[in-house]
Amino acid sequence: MKVQAPFGIVTGCHAGDKFMVGATLASIRHYCPDVPICLTVDGDFDVSDLEREYDLIILRVSDMENQEMADFIGGSSHAKHAAMWEGPFEFYVWLDCDAIIWGDLRPQIQTNLDFQILWDGVS
After folding, report:
1. I need a labelling partner for 41 at 20 to 30 A (CA). Which of 59, 73, 85, 106 fits?
2. Cβ 35 vs Cβ 28: under 8 Å
3. What are the DSSP E strand ranges found in the chain?
4. What is the pairing mode between strands 5-14 and 37-42?
5. Checking DSSP bridges between strand 56-60 and strand 5-14, what pairing results, if any?
């Protein structure tokens, strides 16, 4: 997948998580309406309803260009890493499929860090 934006938000799901990811996507669209979202999909199930409602970029693990990597991470907790290798953003924030944001998180993002936890209790 080619880079489509310098920054975006990535979340992911497998068939068992689909019911939860809708709330995550709704919170992102509400508080960050102009930020592109990539949904990393692990498995062969329909997400067209989410794609339409939230204007998503879909990254299916099974459709990754590097099939060896797709076979390695597919069906495991490592499927979320697909965005690191073939995601559509130069820089992104990963949200678990059960995470809800309660405001615009962009001002808190420090682009000079490789990894950042957005939680007030962590310094």
Report:
1. 106
2. yes
3. 5-14, 37-42, 56-60, 89-94
4. parallel
5. unpaired
What would the pLDDT profile of 68-98 be if each residue is shown by its tens digit?
999 988 988 888 889 888 999 988 999 999 9
List the structure tokens of 90: 């130069």
- Asked if pLDDT for residue 122 goes beyond 80, the answer is no
Give yes or no for a contact between 24 and 38, defined as CB atoms under 8 angstroms apart.
no
Question: Using an 8 Å Cβ cutoff, are 25 and 11 in contact?
Answer: yes
Backbone angles phi, psi at 100, to 5 degrees: -125, 130
H helical segments located in 32-81: 48-54, 67-73
Phi, psi of 38, rounded to the nearest 5 degrees = -110, 130
Provide, rounded to the nearest whole percent, the portion of the chain with pLDDT above 90.
67
In Å, how far are 59, 61, 63, 106 from 47, measured between CA atoms?
A: 11, 13, 15, 26
- Residue 70 to residue 51: CA distance in whole angstroms: 21
